[in-house]
Amino acid sequence: MFRSSKPKIANFRTDYAKRTDFCELFEQDMRLLYLLAFLLTANHKESEQSFVSTVEETFKDETVFKDWARSWVKRRLIENAIEIVSPASGPNGRKRDLWSAGRGETHGEYEIDTVTRLAPFDRFVFVMSILERYSNWDCSLMLGCSMNKIAQARMKALHRLPDFAAVFPRGDRPPMRRLGVTA
Q: Mean pLDDT for each 10-residue chunk of the chain (183 residues)?
């Protein structure tokens, strides 16, 4: 007599990302994802390690909604970079690489290298909160510290970036535009 107006779900797994979805995502966003890893680690070897770990994890986990695949991959990439660098443990003696690796530096490469000059914790907070738009709450959870420490690190990074950009004489300085990490 009374019928439910809800449609029946034939296969609830159809909304989950499949390997082909992840392959397409990595094919489309490989450069941006690697750039994100490099901005976080400031080192090509560690960037590759973070990137490869993320790729491996995507093929192990099949419980990601298709619409969330891109943000899940970025979050895993950030989490892997955090594990590799341990930015909350304080300054470290890690080797910092240049993005351009000795080629002529363009304005975009200069901006990338400017961000990598930040201290590890400040750099992670800057990339996560400013470029990737993570909330203070998400940053504090992922980095294992207070939201107050996140806000302080972001302000410190924002104040330091103009100092690094001051290497260029007035008028020749490239604009500190968006680095293009978010897609």
A: 60 75 94 96 94 92 86 96 87 67 62 89 95 96 97 94 59 45 49
Closest CA to 15 of 89, 68, 93: 68
| Long-range contacts of the stretch 87-93 (C-beta < 8 A, 24+) | 87/120, 87/121, 87/123, 87/124, 87/143, 88/121, 88/143, 88/144, 88/145, 90/121, 91/119, 91/120, 92/120
Place of tokens 């034939």: 10
Q: List b or e across 95-105, with b for residues whose CB sees 16 or more CB atoms inside 10 angstroms.
A: eebebeeeeee
Helix (H/G/I), strand (E/B), else coil: 68: helix
pTM: 0.79
